[in-house]
Amino acid sequence: MDERVSAIVASSGFGAKLGDMIDVSEDRALWTLSPRPELIRNPLRPAPHGGAVTAFLELACKRRRRA
């Protein structure tokens, strides 16, 4: 992960949990939100926590804006 992406991820409360979902190469960044157990709030309805989804989108948008 490059310095710019690391700084953006560090600015988020969910950054530590989302940081490994970002794959940065020279000409692109691939963001993949995986529904890991620590991001699932309700085990009866296994969907990522809304805050995790929102943080993920915010981080991706910040990265795109700074590109």
Notable characteristics:
67 residues, mainly alpha, two-stranded antiparallel sheet, 43% helix, 9% strand, elongated
**Span from first to last CA?**
14 Å
Tally of separate helices: 3
Fraction of helical residues = 40-55%
- Rounded Rg: 12 Å
Largest sheet: 2 strands, antiparallel
- H-E string: HHEEH
Domains, number: 1
Find the structural class using helix and strand composition.
mainly alpha
Strand content: 5-15%
Average pLDDT rating: 75
Strand order within the widest sheet?
1-2
Sequence-ordered SSE layout with sheet pairings:
Blueprint: H1 3-10, H2 15-18, E1 22-24, E2 29-31, H3 50-66
Antiparallel strand pairs: 1-2
Structure description:
With 67 residues, the protein is mostly helical. It has one domain (3-66). The protein is 43% helix and 9% strand. It has 3 helices and 2 strands; from the N terminus they run ααββα. Strands 1-2 form a two-stranded antiparallel ribbon. Helix 1 (3-10) packs antiparallel against helix 3. It is elongated.
Summarize the structure.
This protein has three helices and two strands. The protein is mainly alpha-helical.
